[in-house]
Amino acid sequence: MLDEDVDWATLDLGKFALYGTTLTLAIDALLYPLELVKTRLQVEATSRVTLVRAATQTAAAVVRAEGARGLYRGFGLYAVGGLPSQGCV
User: Fold this and answer.
1) Helix-helix angle 13-43:75-82, to 10 degrees
2) What number of other Cβ atoms are within 10 A of residue 37's Cβ?
3) pLDDT tens digit string along 14-61?
4) pLDDT at 46
5) Measured between alpha carbons, how far is residue 19 from residues 13, 45, 60 in Å?
6) What is the SS3 string spanning the chain?
7) What is the pTM of this model?
8) Pair 59, 37: CB distance under 8 Å
9) Rounded distance between C-alpha atoms, residue 8 and residue 64, angstroms
10) Environment class of 36 (CB within 10 Å of its CB; exposed 0-12, middle 13-18, buried 19+)
């Protein structure tokens, strides 16, 4: 799509911002458990054989200890912290 194909004068900026923010939050929600596991692996002092096995074991430990909701602990603060980068604040 070229710039000539977009009618920039009639672009609804409110709708554009709403869709962008919604999609960004959806992607963040989808990827947040991976970020949580990555952070826990970085803090963990033990070395494990493979990264995939270590990540799987860490995720399983979180689910065992805190339930599935434990994978999203702290997501609200993470999402609110990311809003200024979306131009929503």
Assistant:
1) 130
2) 20
3) 888 888 888 989 999 999 999 999 999 888 876 667 888 889 999 999
4) 67
5) 10, 41, 33
6) CCHHHCCHHHCCHHHHHHHHHHHHHHHHHHHHHHHHHHHHHHHCCCCCCCHHHHHHHHHHHHHHHHCHHHHHCCHHHHHHHHHHHHCCC
7) 0.74
8) yes
9) 51
10) buried
